Amino acid sequence: MAIKRLFVANRGEIALRIVRAAQALNIETVVAVSDADRDTAAARQADRVVVLGPASAAKSYLDPRLIVHAAKESGCDGLHPGYGFLSERAILPRLCAEYGIAFVGPEPDVIDELGDKLRARAMAKAAGVPLVPGSDCVATAADARREGDRIGYPVLLKASAGGGGRGMVIANNGDEAEAGFHRASAEAVAAFGDGTLFMERFVPQARHVEVQLMGDGHGQVIHFGERDCSVQRRYQKLIEEAPCAAMPDHLRAKLHQSAVDLAASVSYRNAGTAEFLFDVQREEFYFIEVNARIQVEHPVSELISGFDLVQEQIRIAGGAPLSVAQADVVLSGHAIECRINAEDVHRDFLPSPGRITRWEPPTGPGIRLDSHMATGAMIPPFYDSMVGKLIVHGTDRLDAIAKLADAIDRFVVAGVPTTLELHRAIIAHPDFVANRIHTRWLEQVFLPGFGRKAA
Amino acid sequence: MTEPLFPEALKTLIEEFTRSGIRELHIRKAEFEVYLSTEPSSAVLRHAAPAPSVSPAPASAGSAPAAVQAAPAATAPAATAPAAAKALPDNAVIVTAPNLGTFYRAPKPGAANYVEIGSKIVAGDELCLIEVMKLFTALRAETSGTVHSVLVEDGAMVEGGQPLFALVSE
Q1: Are A232 and A375 contained in the same domain?
Q2: A52 in B contact zone (CB under 8 Å)
Q3: Which pLDDT value is given to residue A116?
Q4: Of A237, A273, A285, B31, which sits most exposed with the smallest number of CB within 10 A?
Q5: For A189-201, how does the pLDDT look when each residue is reduced to its tens digit (9 = 90+)?
Q6: What is the pairing mode between strands A48-53 and A78-80?
Q7: Which pTM value belongs to this model?
Q8: Which of B63, B159, B164 is the best mutation test for A, with the most CBs of A within 10 A?
Q9: A52 → closest Cβ in B74, B99, B131
């Protein structure tokens, strides 16, 4: 049954994005806010606002019972979790089901399956999706050399009880694999009391690519192309693009098929993203995980496909079938998004909450801004520091880079420091322009130079 | 004045005063005296033992839920704090909901309410229940005093920070 009143269980730009998508579908909205978010753009735009509790996320946005109670009491028949917070916690759709509220997302059991990395890998393997080549348990140094030879170097030796980088050794050949076994095993015994190791191929220069998926919950799954999110700092994405210009077409088709096969194998419902490591040298990709939610970077896929993913999410949650067939999804041009954070890039990315005294974003053809900010808006210190996403759409990658550079130059923000200046410098870097980047590029190559010039 | 009647009569008086547009009202009768004013700077009576002086917008009114717009919900709008909440005695203490939930005045259906208007309470006394998905949490008074008014209907959804009771300390 189509949703009539949608509860928005999130904040910031995505809450506003969801409200607008619902309004475009003539659906009423109720936005849940914490005490610190009473006067936000989503709250003003919504038909109704309910205050959940104090600013602390644990007592507001992260309390599933509080959220579902509020949704029920405000007469909502649908709930959108956004991203982050409770978006991938199966308890939220389970509580929704108890109260007859349609959850805008996958089935709770599917969320649980995908959230468990080992089970997700097993599902991927069963669906024929490539995984990073690796070994079972490695018991001796001789085993390590034999497995290393089979997998192909460099390899990573990892403690199976491990975590936090301890008991991890990189080996570039058979001798290093044997020596590395002794070292990693000893480290693992010392750290975890268990010297059991396993090995997997180490990809020194990998790209992060991911496929945008949408499923109807009955086995039909379509994709909206891939994104390249290789500009990362501490595993946080800063810049996302669509498509992945570094990927050859024959591989791209295989990537899309793998992602669709995986999602179809669990009759995936609603929006999801299959993430992969892309080894450019070997022209291979390996499954990482599935994110069972709409993602921050979904706008780049929307710009190249001309399709509103959030509206489709809401329709599907209301029981509608997919509104497009794969053949009708036509991707064109190139889109780039930068996540604007209120952070001081010259003080080790220190989050800098405060009041925005000037907010004058650029406008024009091919420029999109997803933001809840305005002049006078407050960035509270309790949540993440993202103040918006600037997204551009160009005819090709270089055109998109030029548009983004121009858009950033015309973007005036005052009151708090933002990462806009960093984005401007990244997209002007020769490596970025030539598309010679990988997931460690920002930290290993770009930031050291950026710090020097800034100092 | 007998204690239980007093707050209700005063509440009615304040409501009428607020509606009337009169800027100042001073009533003195036997042992009873009340002074109402819309001027925040106006004189406050210091004599006359129980005489509560009333200023129209104590700081506590600022904590009333801000935004409840064009409520589409079938349930009552959450901000039910009546006009009286805006015109409470200076020494009134507003008890607010710690989080969103359903407000219950009694420990179970059919039981007596935890408190009534005029009830004398001491810090730690239970005032009401706030239910979140069948989890009932008792809300306890942080100060001692007399219940001056109950600002929310039994069984209504309340939001985080919404005023529930006004207490008058001794």
Answers
A1: yes
A2: yes
A3: 85
A4: B31
A5: 888 888 888 899 9
A6: unpaired
A7: 0.81
A8: B159
A9: B99
pLDDT confidence of residue B14:
75
Count structural domains, chain A: 3
Pick the residue of B133, B157, B164 with the most A CBs within 10 A to test the interface with A by mutation.
Answer: B133
pLDDT attached to residue A349: 93
CATH of the domain at A290: 3.30.470.20
Residue numbers of the domain that contains A366: 206-454
Is the previous residue joined to B72 through a cis bond, with omega within 30 degrees of 0? Answer: no
ipTM of the prediction: 0.73
| Conformation bin of residue B33: beta by default, left when phi > 0, alpha when psi is -120 to 50 | beta
Q: Domain coordinates of chain B in residue numbers?
A: 1-57, 91-170
Instruction: For residue A147, give the CATH number of its domain.
Output: 3.30.1490.20
A294 and B CB contact within 8 Å = no
- List CB contacts of A76: < 8 A, sequence separation 6 or more: A5, A6, A7, A30, A101
Q: Which residues of B touch A53 (CB under 8 A)?
A: 98-100, 160-161
Are A310 and A352 contained in the same domain? yes
Strand partners, A398: none
List of residues 6+ apart from B53 with CB closer than 8 A:
B34, B35, B44, B45, B89, B90
Q: Give the pLDDT band (50/70/90) at residue A107.
A: very high
CATH of segment(s) B91-170: 2.40.50.100
